[in-house]
């Protein structure tokens, strides 16, 4: 009998819960934005204070869910056995339209070629029975 391995799941806590709830319930990508007047920068990953001005005045705001690939690679050997069935797959660093960088799988992207500079859009993808994660596709 073949053992089906579960993919590792995100650790949802009080800090990250708004991010995961938005993906799961509404299919929306939320990021934080600093509310300090002089700063106003967008932030990802979720934090308790702004990494630029150290203000704790952060608010969750919808992101456009679009961006540009900064770097990409093809995963041939995954970091966890739960991803073996998906190999090989494209993985990338994406600069969101709002500015922050997010690391993501690229769904349906060509493998072993540079995709730097290509535009992408976010698509929520099922990642386990009760969890979705943001995945990106080429525009």
Keywords, please?
3-stranded antiparallel beta sheet; OB fold (Dihydrolipoamide Acetyltransferase, E2P); 5-stranded antiparallel beta sheet; globular; mainly beta; 1 helix; 139 residues
Description:
With 139 residues, the protein is mainly beta. It has two domains: 14-63, no CATH class; 65-139, OB fold (Dihydrolipoamide Acetyltransferase, E2P) (Beta Barrel). The chain has one helix at 17-26; strands spanning 30-34, 42-43, 58-62, 66-75, 89-96, 101-106, 119-126, 132-138. A five-stranded antiparallel sheet has the order 6-5-4-7-8. Strands 2-1-3 form a three-stranded antiparallel sheet. The longest helix is centred in the N-terminal third of the chain and has 10 residues, at 17-26.
Characterize the biggest β-sheet. Answer: 5 strands, antiparallel
CATH class of the largest domain: Mainly Beta
* Widest sheet: strand ordering: 6-5-4-7-8
Could you tell me the mean pLDDT? Answer: 94
Helicity range: under 10%
H-E order: HEEEEEEEE
Task: Draw up the topology in text.
Blueprint: H1 17-26, E1 30-34, E2 42-43, E3 58-62, E4 66-75, E5 89-96, E6 101-106, E7 119-126, E8 132-138
Antiparallel strand pairs: 1-2, 1-3, 4-5, 4-7, 5-6, 7-8
Short description:
With 139 residues, the chain is mainly beta. 7% of the residues lie in helices and 37% in strands. The strands form two sheets. The chain has a five-stranded antiparallel beta sheet with strand order 6-5-4-7-8.
